[in-house]
Write a structure and sequence with these properties.
This protein has 640 residues and is of the alpha+beta class. It is 39% helix and 17% strand. Helix 2 runs antiparallel to helix 11, helix 3 packs across helix 7 and helix 12 crosses helix 13.
Length: 640
């Protein structure tokens, strides 16, 4: 069992309850008996995850040799009713695992000759047109399915609490379209909007709604009766849905909302059971169809030496083993799926809880690694690489930002924290922070192999590479490359500027009213009305900064709650952007006051200097808000 921190008595009570439920796991009859070692391994590992990370329930399916060898439910699907997880009947929201079905549907149309994956998608779309932002470089289906179409990322307010509130996919693709921010085919940047377009293409070409096409051509042939993309779900499926949770609340759990949305081809609304996902994995491993071959083939590599992207899948490597991987995250639900075709093994893991500090997402990956280590023998390395001198080593040093980070929406604020730092480690190595998917090991050391290629020290054989244009590529995340930042773009610098300017403006909110009060009590001659107005503006600016900082702190204080807040577009987010918007004209007012103070000789020299410093802090704060799109109407256009 992993080490856990001290909990309150309430938390301990909730943990004990969930652990007991986990021990009363429900298993469906498997087509073949699970190896005893596998059975005990999964039981023990999942019990630890549920207890240590405060997750209500989970389900695990393992297929091998064309059969399901393990399908189990653990814990509870609903913390109020204490309904146990049943791998046969409990439906879980899949999140981005839905993209596998979108890719499969599109691949079927490609295999049938209905769609040319290299042609302009506008040739196949009916009521939607992708703008010609980069003349001569149209977006293709191939690029949509490999996250290289070049659309910006904007999920704010895209999801809904209830299925009945979801707008049509075609409508949402027009009204919620993010801009194209890079030429297609140039860099991998995880793209939800691109997959939503792919789903609409399937609907337009087939003449059926996307959920109907998937049901008729994928779910029904595989006997996946507990799965659907329909919103709302059919009554029998809706009755068996698990609830998603995050730790917190008076009962120890808070139910997550926001699993529905128009962009169902990319994740919202898609539901399946663990048993059904076993059927799907078996189909992928045993049905040698043209569509399956298209999915399980690399169509794009950011660097030729690194894992690439299939259709829906990401290429996976662990030691000498290779496979195809996909994960899915939506409020309250986290799923992971891996196929190892060379050994006819498939693994599906899903949790109906975020886990403490969002650990459920990593727990699924960790369990898959353990299962694969138990079932698939590693292939020893043919040789142990020697350290190589890389003359460009110093050029790799710096900060990198995931390409998926938005350039035009509120989600740009992710760039303040989602960064990778690279520094030199001896003569032939690098040290990185923020690249590891394991939250317990954020730092990694790498050995240079030459020509911008590195292998992790310690025998994992994970790799990273530095491609053209200052792009970092990680073997752990082929779907998103990392772009090098100039010094002026450094998140550390920006956080420092925000901290300093916030501190100075908070002091202004206190100092200027206090100074005015002291002058009045001492009976001194009042300053001119314009001078008093300038100081009042500075005080109001400081008070607004306090309110803005407090609202933003509440938003980011709980990463699990924020995962729900962003797709739902909560009032608290609106409060943050409203306060950010107010700060822009206030900052301009303080600057105007500083200019007037020097022109009209308000106050003494020290007073004018201090007010000028306050104005500089206000300008710095406003520029950071604009940079990270923490403003709304009417200043949002300034950030485009």
């Amino acid at each position: 069992m992993r080490t856990t921190s001290t909990r309150t008595l309430t938390t301990m009570a909730a943990t004990i309850t969930i652990t007991c439920a986990a021990l009363l796991s429900v298993a469906v009859p498997a087509h073949a008996a699970a190896p005893p070692r596998l059975d005990s391994l999964v039981d023990s590992a999942v019990a630890d995850y549920l207890e240590d990370d405060r997750i209500p329930g989970a389900a695990v399916t393992v297929v091998a040799g064309g059969r399901t060898v393990l399908a189990k439910g653990y814990g509870v699907a609903d913390v109020r009713s204490r309904t146990p997880v049943d791998p046969q009947h409990t439906g879980f929201f899949l999140g981005s695992l839905a993209k596998l079905f979108t890719a499969q549907a599109a691949s079927q149309l490609v295999a049938e000759g209905e769609v040319d994956p290299k042609a302009d998608v506008n040739d196949h779309l009916r009521g939607l047109t992708v703008p010609d932002t980069y003349p001569g470089r149209p977006v293709t289906l191939d690029q949509l399915l490999t996250h290289t179409a070049g659309f910006d990322s904007d999920l704010v307010g895209r999801n809904r609490i209830g299925a009945n509130d979801v707008e049509p996919l075609a409508e949402s693709l027009v009204t919620r379209r993010p801009p194209r921010v890079r030429a297609p085919g140039t860099i991998a940047a995880y793209d939800n909007y691109g997959y939503a377009i792919a789903g609409q293409l399937v609907a337009d070409v087939s003449g059926r709604s996307f959920p109907d096409y998937v049901a008729e051509h994928i779910l029904k042939p595989l006997g996946m009766a507990g799965s659907t993309f329909a919103q709302p779900q059919p009554a029998p499926i809706a009755a068996g849905l698990a609830r998603g949770y995050r730790p917190g609340g008076t009962s120890g759990w808070t139910q997550d909302e926001g699993q529905y949305g128009a962009w169902s081809p990319t994740g919202p609304g898609a539901v399946s059971t663990a048993a059904d996902m076993g059927r799907w994995m078996t189909g992928q491993l045993t049905d040698d169809t043209a569509a399956n071959r298209l999915m399980q083939r690399v169509h794009y590599r950011q660097d030729p030496r690194m894992p690439g992207l299939g259709y829906g899948f990401e290429e996976w490597r662990r030691g000498g083993r290779t496979g195809w991987f996909k994960d899915g995250d939506i409020p309250g639900f986290h799923s992971n799926l891996l196929l190892v075709p060379g050994h006819d093994v498939g693994v599906f893991v899903v949790f109906n809880g975020d886990g403490t500090d969002g650990r459920a997402s990593w727990d699924g990956k960790d369990l898959i690694n353990r299962i694969v280590d138990a079932l698939v023998p590693d292939e020893p390395a043919s040789d142990v690489p020697d350290a190589a001198t890389d003359p460009s080593l110093d050029s790799y040093i710096g900060s990198y930002r995931p390409a998926r980070v938005s350039r035009t929406s509120l989600m740009a604020v992710e760039g303040l924290v989602a960064r990778v730092t690279v520094r030199k480690d001896g003569k032939n190595g690098l040290h990185t922070t923020g690249l590891s998917l394991d939250p317990a090991q954020p730092e990694q050391s790498w050995l240079a192999l030459g020509d911008g290629l590195f292998q992790e020290r310690g025998g994992s054989r994970a790799t990273l590479a530095f491609a053209k244009g200052g792009v970092l590529v990680s073997s752990a995340v082929p779907s998103t490359a990392y772009e090098k930042l100039a010094w002026r773009q450094s998140p550390a610098l920006h956080r420092g500027l925000l901290g300093i300017s916030t501190g100075m403006l908070v002091l202004a909110a206190i100092a200027f009213p206090t100074t005015a009060l002291v002058r009045r009590l001492r009976g001194r001659t009042p300053h001119p009305p314009a001078a008093r107005a300038a100081r009042a503006t500075a005080s109001v600016t400081g008070l607004s900064v306090i309110a803005f900082t407090a609202a933003l702190a509440v938003v980011v204080s709980d990463s699990n709650a924020m995962m729900e807040m962003v797709p739902l577009g909560s009032p608290l987010l609106s409060t943050v952007t409203t306060l950010g918007t107010a700060l822009v004209p206030l900052a301009l007012g303080v600057v105007a006051g500083a200019i007037a103070a020097w022109l009209r000789s308000w106050w003494n020299l020290t007073g004018r200097i201090l007010f000028t410093v306050t104005a500089a802090a206000a300008v710095t704060m406003a520029s950071m808000l604009l940079q990270y799109h923490l403003v709304g109407v009417p200043f949002a256009w300034l950030t485009k």
